[in-house]
Amino acid sequence: MKEAVTIPVIGNGDIRSPQDAAQMLTDTGCDGIMVGRGAQGNPWIFRQIVHYLETGELLPSPSMKERLAIILRHLDMVVEHKGEYIGIREMRKHAAWYTKGLPHSAELRHHFNQVETKEDFLKVINQLNH
C-alpha cells in the first residue's frame, strides 16, 4: 500500500502496546500510527511508544499514585466541560479503564459505579490513597 501512493500513510488498528506500534511500523512501512481504543484508560501509552521506538526499552506502567493523579485531572476536566451529572457518569467508565489490571480492580469498579457526585468520587480516590 505504502509503495502505491505518494501521500503519507498512517497505520492504525489494534495498537495496544509499544510493541504493537513498532510492529505496525515495521510490517507496513507506514509513516505514522494512530492509537484508538488502546489509549482508553491508558493515556501513558503515547510516552511508552515514543520511548520504546527511541530506545527499544519498555517503560513501566504508572504507579497507583500516578494513576490516581491522572484520574483526578481527568475528573476535573470532564466535570468542568460537561457538568457534574454527565461528567461523573462518564468518569465511571474511565475510572474502570484506568484501574484495569490493578489489585482489587473489580471492587474498585463497583465503588466507582456507585458514585453520584464529584465529592463521592473524591472519597473513593482518597480511600485508595490510604
UniProtKB/TrEMBL annotation:
The terms under GO molecular function for this entry are: RNA binding; tRNA dihydrouridine synthase activity
Q: Which InterPro entries match?
A: Aldolase_TIM, DUS-like_FMN-bd, tRNA-dHydroUridine_Synthase_C
User: What's its EC?
Assistant: 1.3.1.-
* Family matches, as Pfam families: Dus (PF01207)
Segments forming domain DUS-like FMN-binding = 2-125
| Entry keywords, A to Z | Oxidoreductase
Against SUPFAM superfamilies, the record matches this protein to:
FMN-linked oxidoreductases
Endpoints of the signal sequence: none
Full protein name:
Putative tRNA-dihydrouridine synthase
Organism of provenance = bioreactor metagenome
Specify the taxonomic lineage.
unclassified sequences, metagenomes, ecological metagenomes
This protein's gene is called dus_42
